[in-house]
From TrEMBL:
Lineage: Eukaryota, Metazoa, Chordata, Craniata, Vertebrata
GO cellular component, one term: endoplasmic reticulum lumen
GO biological process: camera-type eye development; in utero embryonic development
Region Disordered: start-end pairs: 32-56
Designated name of the protein: Reticulocalbin-1
Length: 331
């Protein structure tokens, strides 16, 4: 029984740790030897070549993870096209039989927002123990760290102990930032800000601070070039750095280190991971139009979308594939 309690505590805490750690990072993943904390500028989208089925699968797994990408396999191509056609009708908000980049962007933002709130709804009952439709810090702490706090001897001298000891005060700090009225309880909106801080303006400082803490290994309050590279790339047996690492070192010097002092402060980290001039939904919408617009009139017909249907399954326009498995009335 004790072992089960510990496993549940670990599952909740480490699962949330993974979700929180990924929050500021890009959705489009790179190979495992490289991590990125911000989406690339969309200037290259217009230069991307048409994608084949293999790269579609890369997109599906990058956006979904391997397990969730299997959602795509639950429908036949005919069923997928039929349901996608109904979604297209919803995206075409002015009913002119064309889908513009702006309409796609609006839809993607809506789907993204719904995905976030659905995600919160799925975990809400795990933390709202007294069922008062609010989550107090104590409820969250006990659900996530209760077993650790009640049985500290089991965690001594272990990686689990280090993880819990680090994450507990970090979670409390983030919870307080999300708790706008300071009553030590979170409404659904406040808890959403806690779990998805990158989506809320008042939480951006927390995102920056946590990123700094993750990368700043020497604890000097800055990110130097080696720390910046180490966050993306793990050297294996002191082998040579690949070309992209050398390119990232140049990026650090030319574009990240704005004041040229050899390190990144909080303002420079903010400029890096939360660029003000980048709109992920806009970039994705432009990408979808570019790849599907056969006659290059900068807008899509339903036929053009359905002809390229397997690309949309893996895009945000269909909630990373999930919308295709939902009843049309749910959308």
């Amino acid at each position: 029984m004790a072992r089960g309690g510990r496993d549940r505590a670990l599952g909740l805490a480490l699962g949330l740790l993974l979700a929180l750690a990924l929050a500021p990072r890009t959705l489009r993943a790179k190979p495992t030897v490289r991590k990125e904390r911000v989406v690339r500028p969309d200037s290259e989208l217009g230069e991307r070549p048409p994608e084949d089925n293999q790269s579609f699968q890369y997109d599906h797994e990058a956006f979904l993870g391997k397990e969730d990408s299997k959602t795509f396999d639950q429908l036949t191509s005919e069923e997928s096209k039929e349901r996608l056609g109904k979604i297209v009708d919803r995206i075409d908000s002015d009913g002119d039989s064309f889908v513009t980049t702006e309409e796609l962007k609006t839809w993607i933002k809506r789907v993204q927002k719904r995905y976030i709130y659905d995600n919160v709804a799925k975990v809400w009952k795990d933390y709202d123990r007294d069922k008062d439709d609010k989550i107090s810090w104590e409820e969250y702490k006990q659900a996530t760290y209760g077993y650790y706090l009640g049985n500290p001897a089991e965690f001594q001298d272990s990686l689990d102990h280090h993880t819990f000891k680090k994450m507990l005060p970090r979670d409390e700090r983030r919870f307080k930032a999300a708790d706008l009225d300071g009553d030590q309880t979170a409404t659904r909106e406040e808890f959403t800000a806690f779990l998805h801080p990158e989506e809320f303006e008042h939480m951006k400082e927390i995102v920056v601070l946590e990123t700094l803490e993750d990368i700043d290994k020497n604890g000097d309050g800055f990110v130097d070039q080696d720390e910046y590279i180490a966050d993306m790339f793990s050297h294996e047996e002191n082998g040579p750095e690949p070309d992209w690492v050398l390119s990232e070192r140049e990026q650090f010097n030319e574009f990240r280190d704005l004041n040229k002092d050899g390190k990144l402060d909080k303002d420079e980290i903010r400029h890096w991971i939360l660029p003000q001039d980048y709109d992920h939904a806009q970039a994705e919408a432009r990408h979808l139009v570019y790849e599907s617009d056969k006659n290059k009139d900068e807008k899509l017909t339903k036929e053009e979308i359905l002809e390229n249907w397997n690309m949309f399954v893996g895009s945000q326009a269909t909630n990373y594939g999930e919308d295709l498995t939902k009843n049309h009335d749910e959308l």
